[in-house]
Design a protein that fits this description.
Layout (H helix, E strand, L loop, with lengths): L5 E9 L11 H16 L4 H21 L1 H8 E4 L7 E6 L7 E4 L1 E3 L4 E6 L2 E6 L4 E4 L8 H6 L5 H11 L11 H9 L2 H14 L4 H30 L7 E5 L3 E5 L8 E3 L7 E2 L3 E6 L1 E5 L1 H4 L4 E5 L19 E2 L4 E6 L15 E6 L5 H10 L1
Antiparallel strand pairs: 1-2, 1-3, 3-4, 5-6, 6-7, 7-8, 9-10, 9-11, 11-18, 12-17, 13-16, 13-18, 14-15, 14-17
Helix pairs in contact: 1-2, 2-3, 6-8, 7-8
Amino acid sequence: VRMREIQSWSLYSPAPQAVRLDARSPPFYALYIALFALWIQGTDYIYFIIGGGVIFHALIFLFEHWSVDFHSFVSFRKVAHIKDAQFVKVTPVPNKGKKELRPLMFNKDIQETYFYYQKTKFIYNPDKKEFERLDFPVHHNFEYYAESRGLQESETVLKESKYGLNIFDIPMPTWQELYKEQALAPFFVFQVFCVLLWCLDEYWYYSLFTLFLLLVFEGTVVMSRLKNLQSFRGMRVPARDIQVYRGKWVTTSSDKLLPGDVISLGKSTVDTISPCDILLLSGTCVVNEAMLTGESTPHQKESVFHGDMKSELQMKHHQLHVVFGGTKIIQQRDNGEHPSLTSPDKGCIAYVLRTGFHTSQVKLQLEISS
């Protein structure tokens, strides 16, 4: 994968059911039939044998949850060609996340094989035989953006299929799902095992009380995580109507904006929020980037016509011309700099660079939450 956060990737497909070694595979059915036969025969140390078999089965089940490498070893087989694969195992560089086994998806409309990792889309390049990060129009020179007339209506279907909607929607897990995740954590399993050992002694009442406190504590942790997730989801930029140029100025919802669109920010009596990362093509505006930097000092943004038109856009070095998603637009003025487009609502004209989970605001929030 061509990305500095990813160390390696490998392709997998599900192993045939008969040769799988996971906790739900046929070999364990045979194991319990054999243990039942031994119990019927009254074999010596039968309870130790049954106990050992149950513990072994439980460890296989737990290791599948604890280790992606173990899960892929017992339930999948490695393949060499993308056409044979259904999953991809992603190994990130240290301190950039954890290994995950992600399902491969195929888009028939644009003949595209891809997967999502940490809310980022990776597309398979058959010529280079590697996965590449979803490409956004952020590497052109200023002249290219100034001459752009946005997208045509005929292009939006394929563009939406490729980039998705401009929404920041994190699925909200249920209380039961989070509690199960907490209960299967290695340290919690070790604590429960210690409690069971204490139950074999005379201190069973003390052990049961300890187990009760452990269960209550994990419940409070789950409630705290749910509260944090709800606060996190509350940071979403609400959708609003916005003017977009698609052959002509039309009104659409901001959650349907696509990279390559040309929009008018539109004047309002109240402060507005930038719906995505955009490049100013006409006008100036004053923004508050406290959501990104923590500083409430206003910053002025200018159009690309105030820079070198031959310069290639660099997001870090040309922040004077970029309004990042999630920033508050305090004041704006369109001064008619654009040579061929006129704002229908006297707002600044801008070019959409990145949308959805790929905006600067969302990437920062995902880093904080990870």
